[in-house]
Write a structure and sequence with these properties.
Elements: H1 2-10, H2 13-40, H3 46-57, H4 63-95, H5 98-101, H6 110-122, H7 127-136, H8 140-164, H9 168-194, H10 207-241, H11 246-282, H12 285-322, H13 330-342, H14 344-354, H15 359-384, H16 386-413, H17 417-445, H18 451-469, H19 475-483
């Protein structure tokens, strides 16, 4: 649900914003949104680290007492992080003129809107701690539902703000109000309702204990920045290094589909990664090996199938979506969508690494990924614009995640890693190629460029791919193919 709402933040609202605000103001809002999302990605890894700690407490006799003490201590750390972020953001906003640096001098209220979004979203970070506890206790669906309602209401408020005022500042206030309101509800109401043992004020913590928590969380913080922060930081870099304001909208809109594909991969991977983490913890090598091979293959197959459809119809959808106001860049789309599909095995490996206590491996891999991105972005973004950002991000994914993280875990986990890799990437190529071929057939069968034509083409594509995949509906054949996957 949250993945779909994240898409509506872009897909549903973008045409509305373009019509009533224009592409210049839209680019300004997308930049502000990226800056706020970058602040939310500033969680120094305490979210995932706390999740692992809460999971470890579940097997103890005094689980509630340990959880209460740990929650209170880490809550103080989150409050400290928020205080530090607010101070840093405030100093930066006073020292620099964001509208001038990012090229939005003509947008009234840009600086104030940016400040409201960044400072407001910084205060929502403690909700990550509550989210980790809900997830550890098997209630993640509850907090996700609350966040979904808040996000949906915030989007409705943004539409109302645009329609009634057309003012960037009011849009920012509507967006932040929804995020802050949801976080406050989770922390001060919903959390106590489901975990009454959390009563009491946060306790004082020692510097030694706090240092240990930040040290343990650091690899996950680097991972979080590499996976989320760099994507939004690239928007700010394009704004600062490229003079064309439409380039920001072009980048964000094209990046949306790649983020959607990556988010789906995460959702497919997480349940399998949790089981893999359990097998790793108890030393069930045979079960771990078989599940890793099957899970990796199935997730990659699913993402490859979706990629074939996206590459087939993304141009038509993009042009209808933006009504021609934002130029389409085919190379940029192929780089982002194809690159995301290519690193699907690495995304799966990262999910497994997060559940199997491989903080050091994640730290080195993600540090290399960040270094590659910045090393290339400084030169490529001024020269190539959004395409330079895409090359920088994709290069980091391929060289660090695929070349190091995926390769290391594949060799360490499976008995026949090279056979599995050949089969995996051969399957990926075949599935994407089949999707592209079926896209050509669909366009030939249903020519046209309107919305109805696009729907008909997609229907033909779905029917064709279902026909091609129909043998997999036979249980015997499907099980035989799964058993033949090298592990």
């Amino acid at each position: 649900m949250l993945v779909l709402l994240a898409l509506t933040q872009q897909i549903v609202l973008i045409p509305f914003f373009l019509r009533y605000l224009g592409h210049e103001t839209l680019s300004a809002w997308l930049t502000i949104f990226a800056a706020g999302s970058l602040v939310q990605a500033a969680d120094p890894g305490l979210h995932v680290w706390s999740l692992n700690r809460f999971l470890s407490f579940k097997s103890r006799d005094d689980a509630d007492r340990r959880t209460r003490r740990y929650f209170a201590g880490v809550l103080l750390l989150f409050i400290g992080v928020v205080g530090g972020l607010v101070s840093v953001i405030g100093i930066l906003l006073m020292l620099a003129n964001p509208a001038s640096v990012l090229g939005f001098r003509s947008e009234p209220g840009f600086d104030m809107a940016l400040a409201i979004v960044m400072l407001g979203l910084a205060t929502t970070l403690p909700a990550n701690l509550a989210s980790s506890l809900f997830r550890a206790r098997g209630l993640y669906g509850r907090v996700a539902a609350v966040q979904a309602w808040g996000t949906g209401l915030g989007q409705v408020a943004q539409v109302i703000a645009v329609f009634l005022t057309g003012n960037l500042l009011m849009v920012a206030l509507a967006f932040v109000a929804g995020q802050v309101g949801v976080s406050a509800f989770i922390l001060f109401s919903d959390l106590k309702r489901h975990f009454p043992f959390l009563g009491g004020l946060p306790r004082r913590v020692s510097w030694r204990w706090a240092r240990a928590q930040f040290t343990g969380a650091f690899p996950f913080g680097v991972m979080n920045f590499a996976e989320v922060g760099m994507s939004y930081l690239s928007v700010l870099l394009i704004g600062a290094l490229v003079s064309d304001r439409a380039a920001i909208a072009q980048w964000v809109l094209t990046r949306t589909v790649a983020n959607f594909l990556r988010a789906l991969c995460y959702q497919f991977s997480l349940p399998i990664a949790a089981e893999l983490g359990h097998d790793h913890a108890v030393g069930a090598r045979d079960s771990l090996r078989a599940l890793y091979a099957k899970g990796l293959f199935i997730v990659t197959f699913t993402v490859s199938l979706i990629t074939g459809g996206l590459l087939s119809f993304w141009r038509e959808f993009f042009e209808l979506w933006t009504a021609g106001a934002i130029p389409y860049d085919a190379t940029l789309a192929v780089m982002l969508i194809g690159g995301t599909c290519l690193v699907t095995p690495a995304t799966f490996a990262m999910s497994y690494a997060s559940y199997s206590d491989r903080g050091r491996l994640l730290l080195w891999t993600k540090s290399l990924q960040i270094a590659i991105f910045f090393g290339l972005a400084v030169f490529l973004i001024p020269a190539l614009g959004p395409l330079g950002a895409a090359i920088s991000l994709t290069s980091g994914d391929i060289l660090a995640q695929l070349g190091v993280l995926f390769s290391f875990l594949l060799i360490q986990t499976l008995q026949h890693p090279f056979r599995h890799a050949v089969l995996l990437f051969g399957m990926m190529l075949a599935v994407v190629a089949a999707g592209l071929a079926m896209g050509m057939v669909a366009r030939y069968a249903m020519p046209g460029t309107g919305f109805v034509d696009l729907v008909l083409q997609c229907s033909v594509w779905l029917a064709g791919m279902a026909l091609i995949s129909s043998p997999l509906a036979r249980t015997g054949l499907r099980n035989k193919l799964i058993r033949s996957i090298p592990h």
